[in-house]
Amino acid sequence: MIIRPQYLNTLRTFRDVPLVKILAGIRRCGKSTILDMLRDDLIESGVAADHIISMRYTSEDVPDEMTDKDMYRHIKERMTDGGRFYLLLDEVQEIDGWEKAVNSLLENANTDIYITGSNSKLMSGEISTYLTGRYLSIPVYTLSFAEYLEFKNSDPRSPKELLNEYLRLGGFPIVALGHFDERSAYQIVEGIYHSVITSDITRRHNISNFDLFNRVVRYIVENVGKTFSANAIAKFLKNEGRSLSVEAVYNYLNWLEKAFVIYRCRRYDLQGKSVLKTQEKFYLADPSLKYCIMGFNPKSIAAMLENIVYFELRRRGYEVYIGKNETKEIDFAAVRRDERIYVQVCRNLPEASDREVANLLELKDHYPKYVVTLDELAAGNINGVKIVHLADFLLGDL
Q1: Which residues, listed in sequence order, are joined to residue 268 by a DSSP beta bridge?
Q2: Kindly report the CA angle at 294 between 293 and 297, in degrees rounded to 5?
Q3: Tens-digit pLDDT profile for the chain (398 aa)?
């Protein structure tokens, strides 16, 4: 098992804190494996194996009639003494009313609880009813480039060669662990995508016009990194001779977001210091989702560079916004406590150096400013703006 220390360290930080730790992310991003890592870490730290209760609640493993009371009873039966028990509960959202069972276990037993989930049912309104202020959400993403290198540590290729592969194949752990060509890798990701769409969205929300839903998804995928609105999607569909209300588009976007397929990036007015509610951007949970739907085209890498940088910033604990500075736009304004950084992303610097750097230089504060590029010869510093290669940005300290 390849350790993902960022998540393990976070879980160590909150061990025995009286909160339910919720690991949430798209299917197959590695949440179950993180629970396995946690189990091993607990044993290494001296916790007795019989005081670690691991339960898996996938639809294949759980009978349809299982209730939250059954869930509670099955776990309590395994708690054979008054000692502290560590509950590792995988894909709990498959149990209706799981929140009530978890809340009872938190209140009425000597427990430390960790759960995973991968769809909107995990984050339903009942959490606020039963676990108000008593849970901690830990987002889990597909592999960062640094993690990807760990997964490939026996591979003789250089980091640069592996970066090119990472850009093409994405960061799903199952793909990184194998030796797949593009076609095979995208077939695997397509299977993940369809399981999410079928199980977590269309079936759960009774979407009847699957073709129309797929067209909305395709529009989002085609426009990753571009600002658009639900109204713009509705108008686009109307021009194609299809009819879908703005409200329905909002629902589709919301369901895709709650299934962790897409992530919303809001715009932030750097002058007025306020979050704007219009013209948001959306990014895909993994670049390979675009390629499995649209096919791979080398020209598409430029559009996905923003996607990769966006998630790198999120992995490092930043809140990430699109920066609006009067009429100019900064790709990312990222905030972490009292820190802030600004990032522009472009494939080849000579094509956009004046605009990318000029937009950053107009910001008169003293926070770090970066232009991230794939240009091999562009590294340097222009009036305080750091020009960095994508690999150095993904692997270095910000």
Answers
A1: 275, 323
A2: 135
A3: 888 999 999 999 999 999 999 999 999 999 999 999 999 999 999 999 999 999 999 877 777 789 999 999 999 999 999 999 999 999 888 888 898 999 999 999 999 999 998 765 565 555 656 787 899 999 999 999 999 999 999 999 999 899 999 999 999 999 999 999 999 999 999 999 999 998 788 988 899 899 999 999 999 999 998 888 899 999 999 999 999 999 999 999 999 998 999 999 999 888 877 887 777 899 999 999 999 999 998 888 888 999 999 999 999 999 999 998 888 899 999 999 999 999 999 988 765 567 788 899 999 889 999 999 998 877 788 889 999 999 999 999 88
Same domain, 240 and 357: no
Residue 166 lies in a domain: no
Report which of 71, 77, 76, 73 is spatially closest to residue 99, judged by C-alpha positions: 71
Q: Can you give the pTM of this predicted structure?
A: 0.93
CA 23/CA 120 separation, integer angstroms: 13
- Residue 139 has phi, psi (to 5 degrees) of -70, 140
Query: Edge-to-edge strand order for the sheet containing 20-24?
Result: 52-56, 85-90, 111-117, 20-24, 135-139
Tokens standing for residue 375? 């240009």
Which residue has tokens 């069972």? 101
- Which DSSP symbol is given to 132? T
Taking each continuous run of H as one helix and of E as one strand, the counts in the chain are: 16, 13
What is the C-alpha separation between 334 and 371, in angstroms, rounded?
14
Between vectors from CA 267 to CA 264 and to CA 269, what angle results, nearest 5°? 160
Q: 95, 127 in Cβ contact below 8 A?
A: no
User: Domain boundary at 263, 296, 329, which?
Assistant: 296
Instruction: Check: CB of residue 282 under 8 Å from CB of residue 224.
Output: yes
Residues in contact with 397: Cβ distance below 8 Å, sequence separation at least 6, in sequence order: none
Does residue 225 contact residue 280 with C-beta atoms inside 8 Å? no
The pairing of strands 319-325 and 328-336 is antiparallel
The domain boundary, picked from 296, 311, 344, lies at 296
251: which 2 tokens?
Answer: 């629902």
Range of the domain at 349: 297-398
